[in-house]
Design goal:
The chain is α+β, with helices and mostly antiparallel strands. It has helices at residues 12-19, 23-31; strands at 2-5, 34-40, 47-50, 65-68, 72-76, 79-82, 87-89, 92-96, 117-122.
């Protein structure tokens, strides 16, 4: 599964700084790697994607945001994810996607299952 991302997230620059690389390199390392759904949790349709480039392993925010918009593409520790709905969250926001990863009227309601291969691409 390929997910197009507009890389304009609120934390993109701070992730680059923490990793000691440029913003372009953050985008390249995030979009240039196949990730795998390890499990779902936290919220319906929230998939923990494993296989993130180790250079991008950054901690969660010290203080979570009270609301993260649906479609936000984020990283925390060794994981990446797409927020399926608006919710509180402490992950670092890299960008956003229009891809629907949670839709109660769809069958199944999420395209994610453990083992699903996911690749982000620059939109």
């Amino acid at each position: 599964m390929t997910i197009p991302v507009v890389y304009d997230g609120a934390d993109l620059e701070s992730v680059a700084e923490a990793a000691g690389i440029s913003v372009d390199e953050v985008v390249s390392r995030h979009a240039g790697r196949e990730l795998v759904v390890g499990w779902l949790g936290f919220a319906p349709g929230f998939a923990y994607l494993i296989g993130l480039d180790p250079v991008l392993h950054v901690p969660r925010l010290a203080t979570p945001r009270t609301s993260v918009p649906a479609g936000s593409v984020a990283i925390a520790g060794p994981y990446s994810a797409v927020y399926p709905t608006a919710s509180p969250g402490g992950w670092r926001l890299l960008g956003r996607t229009d891809a629907r990863v949670w839709d109660v009227s769809a069958e199944p309601p999420t395209p994610f299952r453990p083992g699903t291969r996911v690749r982000f691409e620059v939109a």
